[in-house]
Each structure stands twice: as structure tokens, then as C-alpha cells.
Q: What sequence folds into this?
């Protein structure tokens, strides 16, 4: 059941990703406005570029969280075959060079903590994006 709960939490990363994608696209459109002849304040342009960079970082963490969500969901369905499926998963990850051959096997409690740490990083990127967006919106009237 713990693996199922972790998988369910990790699936919430998709909701965070959609919000971040919206902010990133809005910032990218704003940053590209000078191509249409719309003048922008340099500080506002820098903020938009930083929002896009944070959005790309968020996308990286979102991809990793989505992968873990699917893997945890699959393992939650393993039942009594969890040990065999864990070994098969580790071999597959090593064969795809997603896990070093020298890495020692981790129990699912450690894997859960690692996956949830990725979700926290994803949420942190979205939090930073949101704060920067609000700061930019609040300072736009002052920047002209």
C-alpha cells in the first residue's frame, strides 16, 4: 500500500507541471514581444527569461517524477512478486544506463524518499516561478 500511496503522490506532479507550463509559455511570449516591436523594460525581460529557465528546470524534474510515478504504480501491483520485480527493475535501469552498475540495491523505503525528494524539487521550482511571476507583475507598473 505504501508504494501505491507514493505513486499517487507522484502523479500530482502532473498538475504542478501543467501550471508551470502555463507560466513558462506566458513568460516566453512576453520575452519574445520585442520581436513584434513591443518595447520591454530590461528588468522585466530578465525576469521573463528567468521564468523560462525555471520552467525548463521544472520540466526536467517533472519528467523524472512522472517516470517514478509509473514505476511505483507498477511495483505497487506486484504483490508477492515485488522482490523479483525489484531485481528486474534494477537490471533494466542498469541496462539502460539509468542506474550505475556499482549502485547498491535500495529498499523501497529509500526509493520512496528519493522519489518524493524529486517531487519536492519540482514543487520548489514551481514555487520560485510563482514568486518571480508575482514579483514581476507587481513591479511592472514601477518599471514603466
A:
Amino acid at each position: 500500500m505504501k508504494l501505491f500511496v507514493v505513486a499517487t503522490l507522484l502523479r500530482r506532479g502532473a498538475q504542478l507541471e501543467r501550471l508551470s507550463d502555463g507560466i513558462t509559455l506566458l513568460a516566453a511570449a512576453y520575452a519574445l514581444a520585442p520581436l513584434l516591436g513591443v518595447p520591454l523594460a530590461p528588468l522585466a525581460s530578465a525576469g521573463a527569461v528567468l521564468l523560462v529557465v525555471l520552467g525548463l528546470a521544472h520540466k526536467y524534474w517533472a519528467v523524472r517524477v512522472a517516470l517514478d510515478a509509473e514505476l511505483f504504480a507498477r511495483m505497487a501491483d506486484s504483490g508477492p512478486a515485488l522482490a523479483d520485480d525489484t531485481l528486474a527493475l534494477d537490471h533494466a535501469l542498469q541496462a539502460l544506463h539509468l542506474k550505475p552498475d556499482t549502485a547498491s540495491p535500495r529498499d523501497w523505503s529509500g526509493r520512496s524518499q528519493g522519489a518524493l525528494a524529486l517531487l519536492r524539487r519540482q514543487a520548489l521550482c514551481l514555487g520560485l516561478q510563482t514568486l518571480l511571476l508575482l514579483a514581476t507583475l507587481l513591479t511592472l507598473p514601477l518599471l514603466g
Q: What stands out?
A: The mean pLDDT is 90.
